[in-house]
Design goal:
Layout: H1 9-15, H2 17-25, E1 48-52, E2 60-66, E3 69-81, H3 96-99, E4 103-109, H4 125-140, E5 150-154, E6 176-192, H5 197-211, E7 213-220, E8 225-235, E9 243-250, E10 265-268, H6 272-277, E11 280-287, E12 294-301, H7 308-311, H8 314-332
Parallel strand pairs: 4-6
Antiparallel strand pairs: 1-2, 2-3, 3-6, 5-6, 7-8, 9-10, 9-11, 11-12
Helix pairs in contact: 1-2
């Protein structure tokens, strides 16, 4: 049998990406459904898979894969004495996580994860932007409680209470106080990269935090240091599962000079090729735990096609809820 002539879908997409995507989203036949260059429907996403405790020497870890985007997150806790925190105030029990920088995310786009990431260079703008977004969402979502990171010590009877602590505790024998904190270093490493990095990085962060168990820790005043025990490690309290859902808007314009015709397509969970063809991105963070949908944040970058009305539309919010179910089920191992 003679071999089939012609080029594959992926080859056509690489040779002429914009016209090829537009032709698939706007087929000439009415009976053909709109599809993307990768064969997915506009709202179709890549199924996520999550593996917990992937790293042996971390306090918590998770590997998340969506299509050809694979990211691993490892969390390690280190202790810091309150006397070594320059701006420490015993009265501060509301904003400890941000004021004392107790959560430190870092993202690395590994050499070999994608052709554009070359060895020996400084951190890319994308890596720094993703780290900033992860840091901001960690605090705005209130995913963690400061209580889980406090290390308490019972003051000896003959030690006076410092003046800055008098406003929150009475001077009495054996009073407990915070001697130190756990600082969580959240390292996120991309093994392979094929678009939509923020959703995968955030899901790996949430999964790793749910997997994290910190050692029992106590303050030794004689040696002025924290001593830890591996016996009965304590898990973090992570009650919610906020999930980021990202889509890009494809307008059909190949150049900026081309006049818009009002048509656009919302492409959920974009790959690298689709991201390069679109200049408008929207990310919604939702938490549907308990059966109710809670919107934590909506962010949009570039373009004007995605209006406030469309952001609040039933189809868009239902897609976000379905995306939450897929990720939450993969993280917890149960169908929600």
């Amino acid at each position: 049998m003679a071999a089939e002539a012609g080029l594959s879908r992926s080859t056509f997409a690489k040779l002429s990406p914009h016209p090829y995507l537009l032709a698939n989203l706007e087929p000439s036949s009415d009976s053909a459904a709109p599809t993307r260059s990768n064969g997915r429907a506009p709202f179709e996403v890549r199924k996520p898979t999550v593996n917990l405790s992937s790293l042996s020497h971390a306090h918590g870890s998770a590997l998340v894969r969506t299509g050809d985007t694979t990211v691993i997150c490892g969390i390690r806790g280190e202790t810091i004495l309150t006397e070594h925190i320059p701006n420490y105030r015993a009265s501060n029990i509301q904003t400890e996580l941000s004021d004392y920088d107790l959560l430190v995310p870092n993202i690395e786009l590994a050499t070999g994860s994608a052709p554009q990431f070359l060895p020996g260079g400084p951190p890319t703008t994308l890596a720094q932007t993703l780290s900033t977004r992860i840091y901001s969402l960690l605090h705005s979502s209130k995913l963690l409680r400061a209580e889980d990171l406090r290390i308490w010590h019972k003051r000896a009877a003959d030690v006076p209470v410092p003046a800055d602590e008098e406003e929150v505790m009475e001077e009495s024998d054996g009073e407990k106080y915070v001697a130190a904190y756990w600082v969580l270093y959240i390292d996120i490493f991309f093994i392979s990269f094929d678009g939509n990095p923020f959703d995968a990085a955030w899901a790996a962060t949430v999964a790793a935090l749910r997997d994290t168990k910190l050692p029992q820790a106590r303050y030794d005043p004689d040696r002025e240091m924290i001593l830890c025990s591996r016996k009965d490690p304590r898990p973090l309290t992570v009650a919610s599962i906020p999930i980021a859902c990202t889509a890009v808007i494809f307008t059909g314009k190949e150049t900026k000079d081309q006049a818009p015709d009002g048509k656009f397509w919302l492409l959920a969970d974009p790959d690298t090729l689709e991201e390069s063809l679109c200049n408008e991105t929207v990310t919604i963070v939702v938490d549907c735990a308990g059966g109710s949908r809670r919107i934590l944040s909506i962010s949009k970058h570039g373009g004007t096609a995605m209006t406030a009305k469309l952001l609040g539309s039933k189809d868009f919010l239902d897609w976000a809820s379905k995306r939450w179910e897929d990720f939450a089920s993969a993280i917890t191992g149960t169908r929600l």
